[in-house]
Design brief:
The chain is an all-alpha fold and 235 residues long. The chain has two domains: 83 residues, Helix-hairpin-Helix base-excision DNA repair enzymes (C-terminal) (Endonuclease Iii, domain 2); 125 residues, Endonuclease III, domain 1. It is built from 13 helices and no strands.
Length: 235
């Protein structure tokens, strides 16, 4: 447990030192538009995050970044829209259509205002609502809640409920460092809750960043990694 505590401390230190607000990575035009933000986040599943955040901007250029318009469109129309975009959804058009339709319908169920999905809701209730969108599981929903917390100051009293998003980078880092015994989303979420209960989601970005920059799936750069001194290197 002592070594795990040291690893968590290093992760928190890395996050405090290098984490940039999402405004530095997400187009301001997306962050400032709740529906654009929702669409970009919903497609942020298994594809390059820089590309995913641009999808709503592509839809906007077509004059269709409007929940009422998208909700009223037939599936064939939505597919033609996605086919026309310069950036394509990661999982193909059929899934992309479902994601887009569900997001629009969820917004319409909240009076056409995407921000009403999370405004005056708890973090857990927001996560539950977001999972109504096809392709948005608990981990993507938790990522959305964390971004809302980091950028809009929401859920400040509920940060203990905000989990990590268990993507491949984070799960790999957790396993190799010795925080989990397996590469598993459930194990990663549970480890973050146990080791940093006041705000599990605080371990999200630093672990993701370390996995992306140093802890590669093949040929990890251990000597340059911020966790080098405390990592178990279970490769």
């Amino acid at each position: 447990m002592k070594n795990k505590t040291a690893i968590v401390a290093k992760l928190i230190e890395h996050g405090k030192q290098y984490y940039q607000p999402d405004a530095a990575r997400v187009p301001q035009e997306v962050l400032s538009d709740p529906f654009a933000f929702l669409i970009g986040a919903a497609f942020n599943n298994g594809m390059c995050h820089q590309q995913a955040w641009k999808i709503p901007l592509c839809i906007k250029r077509e004059g269709l970044l409007d929940a009422a318009k998208l909700a009223a469109m037939e599936e064939q129309e939505l597919q033609r829209l996605l086919e026309s975009l310069s950036i394509k959804p990661r999982w193909g058009y059929e899934r992309g259509v479902k994601t887009l339709k569900d997001a629009a319908m969820l917004v319409m169920a909240h009076g056409g205002d995407a921000s009403a999905i999370w405004r005056n809701s708890s973090s857990q209730e927001t996560v539950r609502k977001l999972q109504c969108i096809y392709g948005v599981g608990k981990h993507i929903a938790s990522m959305i809640v964390r971004i809302l917390r980091d950028n809009l100051g929401m859920f400040s009293e509920q940060k203990h409920e905000i989990d990590v998003k268990s993507d491949v980078h984070l799960m790999r880092v957790f396993k190799r460092a010795g925080l989990t015994e397996t590469v598993s989303d459930v194990a990663a979420v549970n480890a973050a809750r146990e080791l940093h209960p006041e705000f599990p989601g605080a371990l999200d970005w630093p672990a993701w960043n370390i996995g992306r920059k140093w802890c590669y799936s093949d040929g990890p750069n251990c000597t340059q990694c911020p966790l080098d001194a405390v990592c178990e290197k279970a490769i």
